[in-house]
Amino acid sequence: MTHVNQHCLKTKLRISNNSKQIIKIFSLAIAISFISWIGAATFSIPGLSSIASAQFRGALIGSNINQTVPNLTETTLSWQIEAYDTDNFHSGGSSLFNIPIGVSKVRVSGSVVWSNNNSGSRFIWVLLNDQYIPLGRGLSSIPAAPFFPMGQAVYTGVIQVVPGQNLRMKAYQTSGAPLTIFGANTATWFSIEVLE
């Protein structure tokens, strides 16, 4: 291969490599622009809700005291600590989440830690206006734990609500003696999340 031909070949390769770099940079710029547009855009798709980066709404509360649950007695749990509360769902020390204006669908979950005992069962559930939720109700039952404190969780489906209603968590047990739900424990809590 002549010196001229080698020079031409090297020049073509440099041009080809430069073109690839330009294409990569151009593609990256398009991708970044598209991602930025996705983050700011709201899509309206028939049959689906709008997809947008909506601000979270809800509350997470806990208890800093131990609560006694007598045998065979429905007991409403109270909550003294608020990790966050975006819409004043909870008033300090109360047992309720109150539904504010502008909220129509929520999901509720909670957890407790029971003292150990070798008899009976433990139950926790969520009530809407002190009534059982017709569909989507949260209810949990577990057997006794003789050696160690025992955690128990409950959650609802996405349930319809109206402003002015309230939600609470109750506990019940059949051990034959009073049991304790430990409050100073990060695994004892109650949460509400707004979907609409």
Care to describe what's here?
This protein starts with a helix and ends with a strand. It has one helix at 3-40, and strands at residues 58-62, 67-69, 75-76, 81-85, 96-98, 105-114, 117-128, 131-132, 139-145, 150-155, 159-160, 166-173, 179-181, 189-194. It folds into two domains: 1-50; 58-194, Sandwich (Jelly Rolls), CATH 2.60.120. With 196 residues, it is an alpha+beta fold. It is globular, with a radius of gyration of 29 Å. Strands 1, 4, 6, 10, 11 and 14 form a six-stranded antiparallel β-sheet that branches. Strands 3, 5, 7, 8, 9 and 12 form a six-stranded antiparallel β-sheet that branches. Strands 2-13 form a two-stranded antiparallel sheet.
Jot down its keywords.
single chain, 196 residues, alpha+beta, Jelly Rolls, 2 domains, six-stranded antiparallel beta sheet
Topology overview:
Layout: H1 3-40, E1 58-62, E2 67-69, E3 75-76, E4 81-85, E5 96-98, E6 105-114, E7 117-128, E8 131-132, E9 139-145, E10 150-155, E11 159-160, E12 166-173, E13 179-181, E14 189-194
Antiparallel strand pairs: 1-4, 1-14, 2-13, 3-12, 5-12, 6-10, 6-11, 6-14, 7-8, 7-9, 7-12
In short:
This protein is an alpha+beta fold.
